[in-house]
Amino acid sequence: MTDSAIEPMIELRNVKKVYDKKVVGLKKVNLTINKGEFVVVVGLSGAGKSTLLRSINRLIDVTEGDILIDGKSITKARGKKLRLLRRNIGMIFQNFNLVKRSSVLRNVLAGRVAYYPTWKTIFNLFTKEDKERAYEALKQVDLADKVYARADELSGGQQQRVAIARVLMQNPKVILADEPTASLDPQTSLKVMEDLKMLNEKHGMTVIANLHSVELARKFGQRVIGIRAGEIIYDGKMSATPESVFTKIYNGGEEDD
Ligand SMILES: Nc1ncnc2c1ncn2[C@@H]1O[C@H](COP(=O)(O)OP(=O)(O)OP(=O)(O)O)[C@@H](O)[C@H]1O
Question: For a Cys staple, 23 with which of 19, 89, 203, 225, CB 3.0–4.6 Å?
Answer without folding.
Answer: 19
